[in-house]
């Protein structure tokens, strides 16, 4: 285990009924890197993502986040089922019960991991700014009385939130659309807004699920620039799933290739480009052509 | 084992069979559109009225052979109730397919209110009833107690069983059933494969309504009385049965119905009759907490 | 005439066929239930009622089909099928609302009203205000958080019975029970909500539906505690210990003697009205604030997309629970007012129809719109009072209203407007 990895995945396995979606997936994401997760359709990329971000509870393996100066066990904070041993160890029982009651996906985000979605999930009937304000929920003054009486502390907190929201709008070039409904934006704008929204939760690791899907070449190029700027200016680590090989090869430092629920190769873009297994996975072996 | 226990076992079994029939409507509709049909209890209530109306009209023409009475009543009630099911879907669900998640639920509540009030206005608020058609019972003596199984109960069990068997056959082995199952699995994909999913959804509402109608006829025969408010509590209970068995699962609905009927009958005899509805409802909450997927259902996987 | 009809037959044929089909369906639906009325084991025929209903359906369908064939109808249909009519808009940040002038006038009028109104009008308006309170509470739950609560009346009952029971067993008065009932209802909401709110949204609807019915059953059956169907008496409010009766109960001074006024039974209602008005204004204010606070935004975001919300660190169960509890406590408040206004409570005031009425208020008024809810509450409660002959058709009307509103305008009659913001930098400069 290197000291400088922000995410460690070990022996990850996921089973849906009788289907084995993932098997013994292990990899690491190093801090301040851009790591890409690629593979043919149905390789299990999105399943890996959903396990990492907590939407699926992995059936096997460990996911450890090294963020905010501590280690977070993603599987644990989702709320594991009780085991017989828990009933004689009150402390462990207590922790299990706590995470069963209050654990879940939101804790993964609170630990410093934010994500976007393959099919965009914005709050369509709220304004663009409001989308960004919701994302800052955890950092705001949530005292009910302060809000009802509109105290100076509350106003200050709201003002800061607005400033942050406008900062991110500027970063993703959406300042002009601040007061439009999120559902009215164009596809490319929605993608950018989703990234801004994820950034508003102040993550250390940003997971992008096919951010370039549906974008034209110019937009993809801009996105590539934006991802690199994000990493440079905000001490961010980025993990992305992407089919656009141009984007992947140009931006990422490290590439992990997934096929049929297993990691078949990993390394720098150079290594991956020439890796025989990867070529086989994408293009099929020569026997397939016969 | 004492007589009361056995007697309640028989009562519970008949009640449970009927709950199961109504639960089918909830579970199938939930299966294809992922929504609860709130008007389903009212469909059952309507069918009770239709059954009584049919019996009264047939009685007027002097028909008194039980098999013929049942045949005509069932055909009439099932058909008309089926049309009710179809119209409900057409009015309250289909126009709202692209609307917000809450809209169909609220419109279904609206339909439910309309049906209740419409029956109350046209038929009056008083309790209605049907005469006992099938008199007599098997009697067994167990120790000091009597166990009594009326012919009506046996008829109910038989009819419910036949109804479920026919439905299972349709769903498992016919083209229609395959279309239903395909739509349930993946509506978009089914559509791409050329299945008219709108028609399948309509069909599912009709099937659910006819099953509820069968239940309505059977319960009316057994208890003899009903009113315009009868659909409400039975609807909640049948829904409990559907959740207990695993919503979306057809055998689950039947199993859930039986378990609910049996446990409710035992609860009323051992603890308290006044609170038997409270019991069923508490059961619903407990299932939701500890096993939301029900007995035979599969855990839900969120699609992200 | 005939030639004209034939010439435009292509335009007529569709609608006529539709209308014929609808008529057939109506005949099957209405024929038995409306046409054959049970009388014991016998029956009566009412063919004219069926004919009327079928006629209405045929005509209605014909007109609808024809209307949809026109250019405007087609546009409407298309918009409808895309599901794009959202009825939401963002208003510019600096737009001055007319409300700053209208609101004080309305409040002033509301304050003067009781001194010029007769008792009947006063009681009707009090009832209307109680429903405004209920509508506002349910609007938080259904409109803002998108949770369908069908047993809302249960929390209302908790408030009302809270006052009656607290008075009978613990000797607590109106003023103690007012906040206590809000807390009690909120706790009940938390106990019910916590396990259920983590499920798929529809489960909440049916569980609350069951809960409402259970509360009513318990109130009805637990004779020794709740008085069963006969109910309990509830105390009148007091002003700083002064009672509003003709004579004070245990040697105190009644209100009218203390101020040297002649006795008037209206004083009690005037007082209830004023306190209620104050509470309604307070709740209105709090609600206005809530939608501008993080929690209010979180509710709406959750309504829009739960998964996205969770991925941004919001605990969806707790966020929903807060809406559910706040809604419940508002109903608890309304319950206390209802009990003290009526002087007694019994289970008939807390049926499912009551829940349906409150839901109809929210649906008509618009999900999330405050003004709409206030107007809808008055329309739906006061109008039936004034049109007594329609009382029988009230529930039918609510049902039709819900279905039509969902099809035509799921967001309610009034457009929901979201407040725009100005960039903070520009704000500083200005």
UniProtKB/TrEMBL annotation, chain A:
SUPFAM superfamilies: P-loop containing nucleoside triphosphate hydrolases
Source species, domain of life: Bacteria
Molecular function, one GO term: L-phenylalanine transmembrane transporter activity
Keywords noted in UniProt: Amino-acid transport, ATP-binding, Nucleotide-binding, Transport
Family: Belongs to the ABC transporter superfamily.
Name this polypeptide is given: Branched-chain amino acid transport system ATP-binding protein
Stored PANTHER family: CONSERVED COMPONENT OF ABC TRANSPORTER FOR NATURAL AMINO ACIDS-RELATED, HIGH-AFFINITY BRANCHED-CHAIN AMINO ACID TRANSPORT ATP-BINDING PROTEIN LIVG
One GO biological process term: L-isoleucine import across plasma membrane
Any one Gene Ontology cellular component term annotated for this protein: plasma membrane
Family annotation (CDD domains): ABC_Mj1267_LivG_branched
InterPro entries: AAA+_ATPase, ABC_AA/LPS_Transport, ABC_transporter-like_ATP-bd, ABC_transporter-like_CS, BCA_ABC_TP_C, P-loop_NTPase
Domain (ABC transporter): residue spans on this chain: 7-285
Keyword Phosphoprotein in annotation: no
Automatic annotation (TrEMBL), chain B:
Keywords assigned: Amino-acid transport, Cell inner membrane, Cell membrane, Membrane, Transmembrane, Transmembrane helix, Transport
Protein name: Amino acid/amide ABC transporter membrane protein 1, HAAT family (TC 3.A.1.4.-)
Protein family (similarity comment): Belongs to the binding-protein-dependent transport system permease family. LivHM subfamily.
TM region(s), chain numbering: 12-36, 43-63, 69-88, 100-119, 154-171, 200-223, 229-262
CDD domains to which the protein is assigned, alphabetical: TM_PBP1_LivH_like (cd06582)
GO cellular component terms given for this protein: plasma membrane
Record bears the keyword Membrane: yes
Primary localisation category: membrane
Cellular compartment(s): Cell inner membrane
Membrane topology summary: Multi-pass membrane protein
Domain of life: Bacteria
Single Gene Ontology MF annotation: L-leucine transmembrane transporter activity
Biological process according to GO: D-alanine transmembrane transport; L-alanine transport; L-isoleucine import across plasma membrane
Pfam families noted in UniProt: BPD_transp_2
UniProtKB/TrEMBL annotation, chain C:
Gene Ontology MF, one: branched-chain amino acid transmembrane transporter activity
Record GO cellular component, one term: plasma membrane
Membrane topology: Multi-pass membrane protein
InterPro entries reported for this sequence: ABC_transp_permease, LivHM_N, LivM-like
Protein keywords: Cell membrane, Membrane, Transmembrane, Transmembrane helix
Major location category of this protein: membrane
Protein origin, superkingdom: Bacteria
Keyword field contains Cell membrane: yes
UniProt xrefs under Pfam families: BPD_transp_2, DUF3382
Transmembrane segment boundaries: 20-38, 50-68, 98-117, 124-152, 172-196, 203-223, 267-286, 321-344, 356-383, 390-408
Keyword Cell membrane included in the entry's annotation: yes
Compartments, record wording: Cell inner membrane
CDD domains, A to Z: TM_PBP1_LivM_like
Residue stretches making up the High-affinity branched-chain amino acid transport system permease LivHM N-terminal domain: 17-112
Name the UniProt record assigns to this protein: Amino acid/amide ABC transporter membrane protein 2, HAAT family (TC 3.A.1.4.-)
Organism: Azomonas agilis
Organismal lineage: Bacteria, Pseudomonadati, Pseudomonadota, Gammaproteobacteria, Pseudomonadales
